[in-house]
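tokens incoming
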């Protein structure tokens, strides 16, 4: 390959693709609109209290018994894992005006998800260490991708200060939510209508979701035989799990039942107030005065979601590789969890799609 492959997006798919090219001694450039790597993988610390740990505001688990690609990658990178804490009773919250009900959990430990010590960001950081730093360009937004009659590709980008640059390449991997491609990147010649329709209909995973993590000095709920698991129809959190690190502080995280439009109308501080009140109702006085509540609303993240993602989606059948790219076939490749039909929405899907895109490019260049 005379020109470096351009990878759009520095999430898990994009970084895995870059690491695979690097292993082969091939050059690539990873272009990321954000000012950080990781995409929808985000592990955050409490400001000025990093000793409490890092907490996942994006993906949290993987399942090694079913997901061999991520399991092998985590092992090869020598990352430390632990099984999700579910030991103890769960709580059912059916009504806002009544206390929660305590229930016994019957489960098999083999069915539990596995977490990474230090948060899922540890996987992102470890992959980035395998890639030469100059290959990753942050705050670089792809605006247009053009192909001339000879099949040469020019990628037009806009830097943080507004400067516009052109880059040459023979292949592009689009490792970002398909709807962002359809909305924000212009193609010349245009993408085929069938393909464009397909990527517009692929809902962005987590695009309507938000997560909150409440951090405490210790996982006090375990002392009374509770697992931290809650199912609620009263809200605002409809599912709550133990998010504590392996030792030290305690944490509870939850997914919201409040629609994204309502969350955005209330604003982050009001949403966090509702979360704090719900946790006190569920877990009592020990839940008062958490050290912090971390909050991330993915539906308002313009580098993740578009307006169409604001409603919870039902069109799971749309996931998988887009149809033929027409003139762009063997030039543009899609990666990301939405483009994997078997493991869509999982980190496994993101990794498998990256490997597939890289293998296609390597095969083309070996001819």
């Amino acid at each position: 390959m005379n020109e470096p492959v351009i990878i759009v997006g520095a999430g898990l798919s994009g970084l895995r693709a870059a690491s695979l090219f690097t292993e082969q001694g091939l050059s690539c450039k990873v272009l990321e609109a954000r000012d950080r790597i990781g995409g929808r993988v985000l592990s955050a610390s409490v400001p000025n209290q990093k000793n409490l740990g890092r907490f996942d505001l994006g993906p949290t688990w993987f399942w090694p018994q079913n997901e061999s690609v991520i399991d092998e990658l985590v092992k090869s990178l020598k990352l430390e894992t632990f099984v999700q804490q579910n030991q103890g009773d769960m709580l059912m919250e059916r009504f806002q005006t009544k206390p929660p009900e305590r229930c016994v959990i019957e489960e098999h430990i083999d069915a539990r998800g596995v977490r990474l010590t230090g948060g899922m960001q540890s996987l992102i950081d470890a992959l980035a260490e395998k890639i030469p730093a100059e290959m990753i360009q942050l705050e670089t937004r792809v605006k247009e991708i053009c192909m001339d009659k000879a099949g040469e590709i020019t990628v037009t980008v806009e830097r943080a200060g507004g400067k516009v640059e052109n880059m040459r390449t023979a292949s592009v991997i689009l490792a970002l939510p398909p709807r962002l491609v359809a909305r924000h990147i212009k193609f010349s010649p245009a993408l085929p209508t069938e393909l464009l329709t397909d990527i517009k209909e692929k809902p962005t995973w987590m695009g309507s979701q938000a997560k909150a993590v409440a951090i405490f000095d210790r996982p006090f709920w375990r002392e009374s035989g509770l697992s931290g698991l809650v199912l609620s129809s009263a809200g605002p959190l409809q599912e709550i799990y133990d998010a504590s690190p392996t030792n030290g502080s305690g944490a509870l995280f939850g997914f919201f039942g409040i629609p994204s439009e309502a969350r955005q109308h209330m604003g982050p501080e009001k949403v966090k107030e509702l979360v704090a009140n719900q946790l006190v109702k569920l877990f009592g006085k020990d839940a008062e005065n958490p050290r912090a509540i971390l909050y991330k609303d993915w539906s308002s993240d313009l580098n993740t979601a578009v307006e169409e993602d604001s409603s919870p989606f039902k069109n799971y059948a749309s996931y998988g590789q887009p149809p033929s790219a027409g003139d762009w076939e063997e030039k543009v490749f899609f990666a990301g969890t939405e483009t994997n039909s078997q493991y869509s929405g999982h980190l496994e899907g993101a990794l498998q799609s990256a490997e597939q895109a890289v293998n296609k490019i390597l095969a083309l260049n070996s001819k």
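note: The mean pLDDT is 94.
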